[in-house]
Amino acid sequence: MSIFAKSLAAGFLAVSMAATPVVAANPAAGEKLAEDQTFTYSTIDEISSLDPQIVEDVSGSNVARDLFEGLLNQDAEGNLVPGVAESWESNAEKNLYTFHLRDNAKWSDGTPVTANDFVYAWRRLADPKTASPYSWFAEIMAIDGVGPVLAGEADPSTLGVKAIDDHTFQVKLSASLPYFAAMTTHPSTFPTPQAVIEKFGTDWTKPENIVSNGAYVLTEHIPNERMVRERNPMYWDNEHTVIDKTVLLVINDENAAHTRYLAGELDLGPVPTGQYKRLKAEYPDETHSVPSLCTYYYNYNMRDSGPEALKDVRVRQALSYAIDRSIITENILQAGQIPAFTFTPGATAGFTVPKVAFGEMTQAERDAKAVELLAAAGYGKDNPLKVEVLYNTSEGHKKIAIAITQMWKQKLGVEATLANMEWKTFLQNKSEGNFDVARAGWCGDYNEASTFLDLLTTDSGYNDSKYSNPEVDRLMAEAKTMDDPSANYTKVEEIIAEDMPVIPVYHYASVLMLKPNVKGWPFQNVEGKWYSRELYKTAE
Amino acid sequence: MLNYVIKRVALAIPTLLILIVISFLLMHAAPGGPFTSEKPLPPQVMANIAAKYGLDQPLWKQMVNYIWGILTHFDFGPSFKYKDRTVNDIIAQGFPITLTYGFYSFVVAIVTGMALGIAAAVKQNTWIDYFAVGISIGAQVLPNFVMAPILVLIFTLWLNWLPGGGWNGGQWQYLVMPVIALSTSYMASIARITRSSMLEVLNTNYIRTAKAKGLPWSKVIIRHALKPSLLPVISYLGPAFVGLITGSVVIDMYFSTGGMGYFFVNSATNRDYSVMMGITILVGTLTVLFNLIVDLLYAWIDPKIRY
Amino acid sequence: MLVDKNKLEATAERMAGMDTVKGRSLWADARTRFMRNKAAVISLFVLMLVILFAFTGQFFAAWSNEEIDWAILGQVRELGYPSFETGHYFGADELGRDLYARVVQGSRISLMVGVVGTFIAVFVGTLYGAIAGYMGGRVDQIMMRIVDVLMAIPYMFVLILMLVVFGRSIFMLFVGIGLLSWLDMSRIVRGQTLSIKNKEFVEAAQATGVPTFRIIVRHIIPNLLGIVAIYASLIVPGMIMAESFISFLGLGVQEPDTSWGALISEGAKTMSYGTLWQLAFPLAFFVVTLFSLYFIGDGLRDALDPKDR
Question: For the whole model, what pTM was predicted?
Answer without folding.
Answer: 0.84
